[in-house]
Amino acid sequence: MGTTAIFTIGELARRTGLPVKTIRFYSDEGLLPPTDRTDAGYRLYDAAAMARLELVRTLRELGLGLADVSAALTQSATVGELATRHVEALDEQIRRLRLRRAVLRAVAKRNSELEEVNLMNRLASMSDEERKRLVDEFWDEMVAGLEVDEEFYRRMRAGKPELPDDPSPEQLEAWIEFAELVQDPDFRALIRGMSETQSRQIREGDFEQPSSAWQENWPSWVSRAEAAVTAGDSPTSKAGQTLAAEIAAATARPDQDPSSPEFRAEMADRFATSGDPRAERYWQLLATINGWPPVPTVQPAVQFMIAALRG
User: Fold this and answer.
1) Strand ranges (E), the chain
2) Alpha-carbon distance 68 to 4, whole Å?
3) Does the chain have fewer CB atoms within 10 Å around its N or its C terminus?
4) SS (H, E, C) 139-171
5) Hey, what long-range contacts does 250-259 have (CB within 8 A, 24 or more apart)?
6) Cα torsion angle, 125, 126, 128, 134, sign
């Protein structure tokens, strides 16, 4: 054998720090063929085998399976190709670990019961496509069999939950609450009722005037109501009643009397339904999930306008 360095498995283990059992396993699997054997049949390895062993260890530490390590060593696949495949697998594993971490953080924060933990984990593990499908199915049910304003519902459908790969505890909690909300029978009944009201108004020709008036004036009405609340004005004050009169005048059809208590009560009921805090919560949660700017509550303003109309 001349002066070439030759090592027994024990010497190889001491030099590399790997257990004898591991080196023997790699050798048995064909990843580290012995360079030679002693007369007694013990395996011997040279410096090239030691370098090969170091490469095997590196690839295994990076998470490659035995089959991929063998493919790299036999050059049936390049190390670059194997690395690309492994990066993709690791990305998915990291995504799942991040979600698991976020679930555990949410569980710790909410001090959740076992049943809720199970639900949270199932919701968090849903894919983007599954989350979007949940929303699409919700809106499908809300308008099924109804004649509605297609453009309005197109905007409603456009907002889809897109949970990031590394969600914050707040984003994960928002998604869980959102998923619970769109599956809640009471919330579904509320939104379905809104859709049925719109459908009836379209059939009766009573949709365009109030709808366009609300769209044009809503930001101004909210702003004025908020200013009145901040100033401490009551709904029956001059500011409150002036606002109520303008709302009634803008939403009344030519055949309706905007000063009529019955008409104003009807408008107040519509405000109470369309301004339901759960409908607002839907968009607040979606904003948190998707990292959009926060959606501030307008509930104090809505309640002021309802009371002013009833006043």
Assistant:
1) 6-8, 36-37, 43-46
2) 30
3) N
4) HHHHHCCCCCCHHHHHHHHHCCCCCCCCCCHHH
5) 250/213, 250/217, 251/209, 251/210, 251/213, 251/214, 252/209, 253/206, 253/209, 253/210
6) negative
36-37 β-sheet, strand order: 6-8, 43-46, 36-37
Handedness of CA 14, 18, 19, 20 (dihedral sign): negative
d(CA 311, CA 238) in angstroms, rounded, equals: 11
Per-residue pLDDT tens listing for the chain (311 residues)? 445 789 999 999 999 999 999 999 999 999 999 999 999 999 999 988 898 898 899 888 888 889 988 988 888 777 687 777 778 777 877 877 877 787 788 778 778 788 778 877 788 778 889 999 999 999 999 999 999 989 889 999 999 999 887 788 788 889 988 998 999 999 999 999 999 988 998 888 766 655 677 788 999 999 999 999 999 999 999 999 999 999 999 988 888 999 999 999 999 998 898 889 999 999 999 999 999 999 999 999 999 999 999 98
> How far apart (Å, rounded) are the C-alpha atoms in residues 122 and 189?
25
